[in-house]
Amino acid sequence: QLQENQDEIENMMNAIFKGVFVHRYRDAIAEIRAICIEEIGIWMKMYSDAFLNDSYLKYVGWTMHDKQGEVRLKCLTALQGLYYNKELNSKLELFTSRFKDRIVSMTLDKEYDVAVQAIKLLTLVLQSSEEVLTAEDCENVYHLVYSAHRPVAVAAGEFLYKKLFSRRDPEDDGILKRRGRQSPNANLVKTLVFFFLESELHEHAAYLVDSMWDCATDLLKDWECMNSLLLEEPLNGEEPLTDRQESALIEIMLCTIRQAAECHPPVGRGTGKRVGAK
Question: How does pLDDT run across 190-247, given as a tens digit for each residue?
């Protein structure tokens, strides 16, 4: 009897889906399309055994191309709720491979809110499986740390931090209390310098620092480590910094001090509503 009741309920759910959702997710009114996507996200999260499969996920994937930003936004937030739950990751693999390129392209969405949530979704994808995103995918997000729009830049800064700075070598456990150029932060500071130089936007160190300020404050305020890298002799087997790298580190260090003292974003970075030319 329990099985019959469950079958009956699932048949009713299926009838509602085919009779209502399949027609209304393409409704002429954007608000109705947005409600449909928001609800299917809830269904897939609450009842993943029945709804979290590609027969339903494809509707969210298709709707990521919607002309209205509010609808695209609902797609991304619905997906975030799914990717956040690591137990559901295996059921999302096919969807990820099929629609990943679209999500990456949405980081340049003309609507700032959509771009921010696309970056946050990719950060969750990155945490669920690092192999999914290619080097090119990551590069597309990295350069957004120099965006003039702060929420986009901060989201990109968190992605960059999770990808390049948050992993620690197990061997570092024994040197956590060391300071200066022997601290675990030394290699991370060098990584920051290398990234800054490779990005070839040398006049925008303040933008890079501001983008990572919220998620990497301890690293960016480790001035003792930065001083040591500039003033002390390299350790055995350690490559010394070149003049160009030292100049970049000094520029970054000055920007971190200014950020700590002034407590506001650099000039030219704001929170306007729309992204400029893509």
Answer: 999 999 999 877 678 999 999 999 999 999 999 999 999 999 888 777 888 999 999 9
Name the region of 268 (left: φ>0; alpha: ψ -120 to 50; beta: rest): left
Q: Residue 274 forms beta bridges with which residues? A: 111
Q: Are the C-beta atoms of 59 and 40 separated by less than 8 Å?
A: yes
pTM for the full model? 0.90
Q: Which amino acid is at 153?
A: A
- Domains (ranges, CATH) in the chain? 1-132 (1.25.10.10), 177-269 (no CATH)
Taking every pair of C-alpha atoms in the chain, what is the biggest distance, in angstroms?
A: 78
* Long-range residue pairs from 211-217, CB within 8 A, at least 24 positions apart, any chain: 211/145, 211/146, 211/147, 211/153, 211/154, 211/156, 211/157, 211/160, 212/145, 212/157, 212/160, 212/161, 213/157, 213/259, 214/154, 214/157, 214/158, 215/154, 215/157, 215/158, 215/161, 216/157, 216/161, 216/165
Taking only the tens place, the pLDDT of each residue in 10-44 is 899 989 999 999 999 999 999 999 999 999 999 99
